[in-house]
Write a structure and sequence with these properties.
heterodimer; A: Ubiquitin-like (UB roll); 2 domains; five-stranded mixed sheet; 5 helices; B: alpha+beta; Aldehyde Oxidoreductase, domain 3; Aldehyde Oxidoreductase, domain 4; 3 domains; seven-stranded mixed sheet; 32 strands; molybdenum (chain B)
Chain lengths: 155, 782
C-alpha cells in the first residue's frame, strides 16, 4: 500500500506491506532508530511515539494506520539545535541509564507537559505507568519530568 | 578532583535517540534470521521437513541440527562445562528450544517461513518439578550424555558439617524454613540478538552482539567454531540493559554466524520477547531448606542449608568453574557465628538453561534471601524484634578483615552504624507504634528489614575462571601530546555509565578533567582482553585496572617532569594534580605540559622510552564486600491480598563513590527489581512444561505505580583491596531488597500466625496464604 506519513514535520511516501508495524516503518524504512522495539504486546512502551500529538505504542500500530497523520519521534524533539526541556531534564536528573526506554519516556513526558504543565509526582507516575524501565526504578525519571516542568515554568 | 556528581557523557546520544543498539546496525546486503522453536518441553524429533520453507521466494537458507552436525556445530559448550544443543538433533528438552533457523531477505519473511517447516515430534513425559527430578523412574532428560541414567548434575558443599551439626545438637533454639527463590528472568528491555558478518575473502568474522563479555565471546567462538581468534571481532554496541541476560552465548548467536558463513552475507538475528523469556537464560530457581541454631537470647551459633538447584535442561550457569553453586556459600551473611554448612544438589529439568543471571552476584541473591528470611523466622520464634536480633548478631567493626565460616575474607565495614542509620531514617520506633495501632484496628501493615553483605569483583584468577579463562582484566591508557587521554577497557556497560565514571577515575589520578578522557569499550579489536561486566565486577576490577594504569602513566610522567625541571625524580611531589619540586609550587608541571614534553625532542634519562602510554592487567587480590541495610514498609489489603510498598529506605555502603549520582541510580534500579521479584515476577510452568510467563502480559514487571519513592542513605567504608577504595554497587540493591519486601509482607501477616510465604507475593498468593492454602508459586496454580 502506498502511504504518506509526516514524521517530525517531514512527509514520507512509501509502499509498505499492510501488516508492517509503525515501529518497523520508522526504524527500517526511515532509519529513525531512536524508536525501539521491546515486547510485541504493548506492555513495555519502548516503542512509544506521538501520533497526532498523542503517545501510542508503535509496535501495535500499523504503518498504514499512520497514513495521512503526523508522527513525532525522539529525533524530532530537538529543535534548531536546542534540546527540549524533557531531554535536558533527563540529563540533569540522571533519568536514564541504558537509554533503551528513554525515547518513549521522553515523548510521553512531552505529551504530559503539553497537557498538564505542572504535574505532581502522582500524575507523572501515572502518565509513565504504561512504560517500563528496568534500570532507574522510575525515581529519577519522575524527577526529570518534574525538572522539565519547572524549567518550562521559569522560561 | 574528578570524583563527585557529574552528568553522564553517554546521555547526549541517548536523549536524541542516537544510541546504537545491535538492531540499529544495518549492513549492505544484510539478511534476517528467525528461529523455529519447540512447542514441547520434552519430545523426540521424528522428522523435520524444510522443503516448503526453502521454496519461499525470500528465503536464502534453512539450517537444522543436521546441517550443523555436518559442521560439527550442533552442540556447543556451556559456561559450566556441559554441552547445549545449538539446534536440536535428537530431542527437544524444553519448550522454546531452538529447532531450525531460517535466513530470509527481511524479518517478516523469515517469520513467515518458520510456519512452513514441518516437524514431527514424539512427545515424552517431562520433568517440571525439580523436587521429582531425582525420583526413580523419572524421565532421563540428558540421554545424549554417555551412560547418563538420571537427572543429577552435581553435589557440592561448603563449610564444616561436623562442627555445624554439633552446634545444632547443643543449641537452645533452632528454627527451620523451606523457601523457594523462584525462577525469574532479568528481562532487559532490549532482547538478545546478533549480527554476524563473515567475509569469505579475508576470513574475518565480525559479530555485533550486545554482550557483557565481548572478549570471552570472541575466545569461545574461536574454540567452538575453530575460527582463528585474530580473525574474529566482537563488537558490543550500546546495550539496552543486561543484568546478566547478556553474558552467555546463545544458540541464536551461533546460528547467525553459521547463516552468514552459509549465505556469504551479513545475517541479523533478534529474538522477540517471548523467545527472550523462554530461552535465553533465567535466574534463581533455588529450592532451599535453611536452619539456624541460636541461644535463647538470640545469639546465632550456626546455619545449615540444603539446596535443590534447578538448572534446566543444560547446565549453562555462568559462574567461576570452582563454584557450581556460585557464591551461594556466602550465606552466613553479615553475622558473627561459629560454623555453617551448605549442600547444593543441581538437577536437570525440562526447562531452559541458565541459572546465574539477573544481578545476582553469582547466587548471592539467593544466599542473602535465605539468611535474611531465617533471621525473621528466628525473631518470630524468640519474640525478639527483627532489628534488635540483627543488631545483636552483626559483625563488629573490629572484626574486619573477617574470615567467614565458609572461607570468605570480608574487607571492611561498620555494620551496626549502617543499620542504625537505616533505622533512624525510617523512624523505626514510630513505624512499630503505627503498626501496633493499625493491628488493633485490624489493618495489615508490615515492616521488613534486610541486612546484606555482597561479594563482588571476581577474581583473583587463581581462584576464579570461566572455562579456564582467569578473571583478570586489562586496561590501556594512551595520553596524546596535548594531554587528552583515551582509556581502553575490557568490560562493557549496559547502562552503568562507564564512559563517565572511568573517565573520572583517570581524571582523578592524572589531574585532568574527566571530559578530557575518552573511554573505549565493547570492541575486541580496540580493547585489551578481560572477562567483562557481570557480578558487579566493572568498578572492582576494570575500575581498579583503570586506576592502576593511570598511576603507571603518572609514574612515567614524573620521570619526564624531572627531565623537564632538570631535577631528580626523588625530589618531585604530586601536588594538586601536578608534579613539582618539593616545596616549590612554581615548578609545577601539568599532565598536558608533561605529555607534550614526552612527545618532544626533550632528552630523557636512560630507560625512559618517551610518550606516556601504559598498559596493565589487573588481577584482584580479593573480592570487595559492599553491604547495606534496607527497610521496607508495606500495607496489605486483607480482602484482596494486594501489597502496597509504601516506603523503602536503603542505606548502601559501597566504599568510595566515584559518581554518587550514578551510584544512586544503580541502587534505585535494583530496588525496583527487588519489589518486582518479591511481588510479581515469576516464571511458572504447568505439568506439561508450558511456560506460563512467556510474555510481558504474564511475566509482570514493576511499573512506576508499584515503586515507591526510594529513600537512600550512605555510609562509606573504603575497601583496602581496591586502589581507590571502591567496592562496586551494580547488584547490591537487587541482592538486598527482595528479603526486605518479603519480610515486610510476612510481618504484616504475623497476626495470622504466618512466618513465611514464597515469592512472588501476588494478591492471589497472599490471599491464599492468609486463607491457609498457600500454593507452589513455581507451578501452575491448583
Amino acid at each position: 500500500m502506498r502511504i504518506t506519513v509526516t514524521v517530525n514535520g517531514q512527509p514520507y511516501e512509501r509502499d509498505v506491506e499492510p501488516r508492517l508495524l509503525l515501529t518497523h516503518f520508522l526504524r527500517d524504512e526511515l532509519d529513525l532508530t531512536g524508536t525501539h522495539w521491546g515486547c510485541d504486546t504493548s506492555n513495555c512502551g519502548v516503542c512509544t511515539v506521538q501520533l497526532d500529538g498523542v503517545p501510542v505504542k508503535s509496535c501495535t500500530v500499523l504503518a498504514v494506520m499512520a497514513d495521512g497523520h503526523e508522527v513525532t519521534t525522539v529525533e524530532g524533539l530537538e529543535k534548531d539545535g536546542e534540546l527540549d526541556a524533557v531531554q535536558k531534564g533527563f540529563v540533569e536528573c540522571h533519568g536514564l541509564q541504558c537509554g533503551f526506554c528513554t525515547p518513549g519516556m521522553l515523548l510521553t513526558a512531552r505529551w504530559l507537559l503539553d497537557n498538564k504543565p505542572d504535574p505532581d509526582e502522582g500524575e507523572i507516575r501515572e502518565a509513565i505507568s504504561g512504560q517500563l524501565c528496568r534500570c532507574t526504578g522510575y525515581e529519577n525519571i519522575v524527577r526529570s519530568i518534574r525538572w522539565a516542568a519547572e524549567a518550562e515554568a521559569k522560561s | 578532583m574528578s570524583f563527585g556528581r557529574m552528568h553522564r557523557k553517554e546521555d547526549a546520544r541517548f536523549i536524541r535517540g542516537r544510541g546504537t543498539y545491535v538492531d540499529d546496525v544495518k549492513l549492505p546486503g544484510m539478511l534476517h534470521g528467525a528461529i523455529l522453536r519447540s512447542p514441547y518441553a520434552h519430545a523426540r524429533i521424528v522428522s523435520i521437513d524444510t522443503s516448503a520453507a526453502e521454496a519461499h521466494p525470500k528465503v536464502k537458507a534453512v539450517v537444522t541440527g543436521a546441517t550443523l552436525a555436518g559442521l560439527n556445530l550442533a552442540w556447543m559448550p556451556t559456561l559450566s562445562n556441559d554441552v547445549q544443543a545449538v539446534l536440536a538433533t535428537d530431542k527437544v528438552r524444553f519448550q522454546g528450544q531452538e529447532v531450525a533457523f531460517v535466513v530470509a531477505e527481511d524479518r517478516y519473511a523469515a517469520r513467515d517461513a518458520l510456519e512452513l517447516i514441518e516437524v514431527e515430534y514424539e512427545p515424552l513425559d517431562a520433568v517440571i518439578d525439580a523436587r521429582t527430578a531425582l525420583d526413580a523412574g523419572a524421565p532421563v532428560i540428558r540421554d545424549d550424555l554417555e551412560g547418563k541414567a538420571d537427572n543429577h548434575i552435581f553435589d557440592w558443599q561448603a563449610g564444616d558439617r561436623a562442627r555445624t551439626d554439633e552446634l545444632f545438637e547443643r543449641a537452645e533454639v533452632t528454627v527451620a524454613q523451606d523457601m523457594l527463590y523462584p525462577r525469574v528472568h532479568p528481562a532487559p528491555l532490549e532482547t538478545c540478538g546478533a549480527l554476524a558478518d563473515f567475509d569469505k575473502v579475508t576470513g574475518k568474522l565480525t559479530v555485533w552482539c550486545p554482550t557483557q563479555a565481548p572478549h570471552a565471546h570472541r575466545t569461545l567462538y574461536a574454540m567452538v567454531a575453530g575460527l582463528p581468534e585474530h580473525k574474529i571481532r566482537v563488537i558490543s554496541p550500546d546495550i539496552g540493559g543486561g543484568f546478566g541476560n547478556k553474558v552467555g552465548i546463545y544458540p541464536g548467536y551461533v546460528c547467525a554466524i553459521v547463516g552468514s558463513i552459509v549465505t556469504g552475507r551479513p545475517v541479523k538475528w533478534m529474538e522477540d520477547r517471548s523467545e527472550n523469556l523462554m530461552s535465553t537464560s533465567f535466574a534463581r530457581d533455588y529450592h532451599m531448606h535453611g536452619e539456624i541454631a541460636a541461644d535463647r537470647d538470640g545469639r546465632i551459633k550456626a546455619i545449615r542449608v540444603k539446596v535443590l538447584a534447578d538448572h534446566g535442561a543444560f547446565n549453562g550457569t555462568a559462574q567461576p568453574t570452582k563454584f557450581p553453586a556460585g557464591f551461594f556459600h556466602v550465606f552466613t551473611g553479615s553475622y558473627d557465628l561459629e560454623a555453617a554448612h551448605c549442600e547444593v544438589t543441581g538437577v536437570y529439568t525440562n526447562k531452559a538453561p541458565g541459572g546465574v543471571a539477573y544481578a545476582c552476584s553469582f547466587r548471592i541473591t539467593e544466599a542473602v534471601y535465605l539468611v535474611e528470611r531465617l533471621m525473621d523466622v528466628l525473631a518470630a520464634e524468640l519474640g525478639v524484634d527483627p532489628a534488635e536480633l540483627r543488631m545483636r548478631n552483626l559483625l563488629k567493626p573490629d572484626q574486619f578483615p573477617y574470615t567467614s565460616p565458609t572461607g570468605w575474607e570480608y574487607d571492611s565495614g561498620d555494620y551496626p552504624k549502617t543499620l542504625r542509620l537505616a533505622l533512624d531514617m525510617a523512624g523505626y520506633d514510630e513505624l512499630r507504634a503505627e503498626q501496633a495501632a493499625k493491628r488493633a484496628r485490624g489493618e495489615l501493615m508490615g515492616i521488613g528489614i534486610s541486612f546484606f553483605t555482597e561479594a563482588v569483583g571476581a577474581g583473583p584468577r587463581k581462584h576464579m575462571d570461566i572455562l579456564g579463562l582467569g578473571m583478570a582484566d586489562g586496561a590501556e591508557l594512551r595520553v596524546h601530546p596535548t594531554g587528552k587521554a583515551v582509556l581502553r577497557v575490557s568490560c562493557q556497560s549496559q547502562g552503568q555509565g562507564h564512559e563517565t565514571t572511568f573517565a573520572q577515575i583517570v581524571g582523578n589520578e592524572l589531574g585532568i578533567p574527566a571530559d578530557d578522557v575518552e573511554v573505549v569499550h565493547g570492541d575486541t579489536d580496540q580493547t585489551p582482553f578481560g572477562l567483562g561486566t557481570y557480578g558487579s565486577r566493572s568498578t572492582p576490577v576494570s575500575g581498579a585496572a583503570t586506576a592502576v594504569v593511570a598511576r603507571k602513566v603518572r609514574d612515567r610522567a614524573k620521570l619526564v617532569a624531572a627531565a623537564m625541571l632538570e631535577a631528580s625524580p626523588d625530589d618531585l611531589e604530586w601536588q594538586d594534580g601536578k608534579w613539582s619540586v618539593v616545596g616549590d609550587p612554581s615548578t609545577a608541571k601539568s599532565l598536558a605540559e608533561i605529555a607534550l614534553a614526552a612527545h618532544s625532542n626533550l632528552e630523557l634519562p636512560e630507560g625512559v622510552e618517551g610518550h606516556l602510554d601504559a598498559v596493565t592487567v589487573y588481577n584482584p587480590p580479593n573480592l570487595t564486600y559492599p553491604f547495606g541495610a534496607y527497610i521496607c514498609v508495606v500495607d496489605v489489603d486483607p480482602g484482596t491480598g494486594q501489597v502496597k510498598v509504601r516506603r523503602f529506605v536503603a542505606v548502601d555502603d559501597c566504599g568510595v563513590r566515584i559518581n554518587p549520582m550514578i551510584v544512586e541510580g544503580q541502587v534505585h534500579g535494583g530496588l525496583a527489581d527487588g519489589v518486582g521479584m518479591a511481588l510479581m515476577q515469576v516464571m511458572a510452568f504447568d505439568e506439561d512444561g508450558n511456560h506460563l510467563g512467556a510474555s510481558f502480559m504474564d511475566y509482570l514487571l514493576p511499573t512506576s505505580m508499584e515503586c515507591p519513592s526510594w529513600e537512600l542513605g550512605e555510609t562509606v567504608s573504603p575497601s583496602p583491596f581496591h586502589p581507590i577504595g571502591a567496592k562496586g554497587v551494580g547488584e547490591s540493591a537487587t541482592v538486598g531488597s527482595p528479603a526486605a519486601v518479603v519480610n515486610a509482607v510476612v510481618d504484616a501477616l504475623a497476626p495470622y500466625g504466618i512466618r513465611h510465604a514464597d515469592m512472588p507475593l501476588t494478591p492471589a498468593n497472599v490471599w491464599r496464604t492468609i486463607d491457609g492454602r498457600p500454593f507452589r508459586t513455581d507451578l501452575a496454580i491448583s
